[in-house]
Amino acid sequence: MIEKFDVNRPDSVEIVEDLNLDALYQERKRALIAADPNLKQALAQDSDPLAVALRIEAYRELLLRQRINDVARDNLLAFTSQDTLERLGGLYGVERKAEENDTSYRLRMKRSINEIGSMGTIGYYISHAKKAHLWVKDARVKSLGNGRILVAILIDQDALAQYKADEVQSKREQVREAVMQYMHDPKVKMLTDDLDIVFAREREIDCTAKIYGHNLQPKAIDYLRQNFEQKFAECAVLGWDVSPSWIHAQLHTSDVHHVELNGLNEVIPIDDDEYAKLKLNLTTVDLRSNYVEHKGG
């Protein structure tokens, strides 16, 4: 039986060699003495020209093997990065998304490799839906039975931000059409499957947060809000449950004493074809004066 190689544990196979300069030198020294025992006395002195030349040759061998190690490492998914990672992605047909970091790109590539042996599965269709268009942030797949497959896609809102309000819907439809064409390619879709591509459903959640602290400056609150909205947008993929503890963690800074949440007292479950959109209203309370300032949503 062939054992599965875990790309997160490159040490599970011996690809990168451990190098030791002295071991290489001693190996050459023994070989030379075996060829001519008369050289043993000369090689016993490290300062002897022959010993120096032998050590130089061993060092050159070390450099060569290190270069081989570097090339081998660059072709291991767990090690490679930046341009070399993109070259490896080209071999598997996985293109880096705009401003995508190495960790996210490497994970998508791993999924692409794994799907080679899992054609027609839910994971297979999710992976292809994400690859169908650069604006697809997330996807979920549900089997409806009798070969009917529902594919829900979440479009990256940052990609749509550059367009006017009356253009957004048409751009969304263009993405859905592109995904539909890609997914219905005979090289992707299983012959017996019937695919339906839909937009993910938005789940709006209202939450009021009262922030207590000392010397809460307006600029600090604005930064807190912007940072929170950015982190929430990054995390709010399909099926991501909204947790009060997560919101508490994001709203705490060095100036914040404690946070009270109203309207969100327990985890709100989000369906696989839904994504959360949080409407957050911030209220600040300065503990020095008990002055309350309503910041709005």
- Tell me the number of helical segments per DSSP (H or I, 4 or more residues long): 10
CA radius of gyration: 29 Å
Distance between the termini: 59 Å
The helicity comes to 40-55%
Shape: flat
What is the average per-residue confidence, as pLDDT, rounded to a whole number? 83
Stretches where pLDDT is under 50 for at least 5 consecutive residues are: 1-5
Task: Give, in order, the helices and strands.
Answer: HHHHHHEEHHEEHHEEE
Largest sheet: 4 strands, mixed
Q: Strand content of the residues, in percent? A: 15-25%
The tally of structural domains comes to 3
Number of strands: 7
Strand order of the largest sheet: 5-4-6-7
Structural class: alpha/beta
